[in-house]
Amino acid sequence: MMDIKTQVQGLDPNVRARDIQEFIEETGNIYEALAVISKRARQVAVDIKQELHNKLEEFATSTEAIEEVTENKEQIEISKFYERLPNPVIIATDEYLNNNLYYRYAERKNDSD
């Protein structure tokens, strides 16, 4: 699987209006499409948060005094890079509209059972 950072490099981070018909082509229902996108956005947000936390842990130093705050330029650059990434909802919407998401429906119980 491709890294999220490399995947979204060319993606426009700005929110823009979308045609609803694009969303309902696949599922036939706008609410189902939005449910798929929102679940994927949560996954992307968790992945990005974990990745950022792991990168910043490399620079962590244990200090005894709370007053001692050291700024590391590399930490600042990494944080700024992640701040410039598109919102997870924008990433998930782009994946959905480009048919890069796989989703399936859970087993539904029949009312006649």
Estimate the global geometry from the Cα principal axes: elongated
Distance between the amino and carboxyl termini: 40 Å
Mean pLDDT: 81
In the predicted model, the low-confidence regions spanning at least 5 consecutive residues are: none
Oligomeric grouping of the chains: single chain
Which secondary structure elements does this structure contain, and how are they paired or packed?
Layout: H1 4-7, H2 20-27, H3 30-57, H4 73-84, H5 88-97
Helix pairs in contact: 2-3, 3-4, 3-5
Structural notes for this entry:
With 113 residues, the protein is mainly α. It has a domain at 21-97. It has five helices and no strands. α3 packs antiparallel against α4 (73-84) and α3 packs across α5 (88-97). The protein is elongated, with a radius of gyration of 19 Å.
Question: What brief labels describe this structure?
Answer:
113 residues, 55% helix, mainly alpha
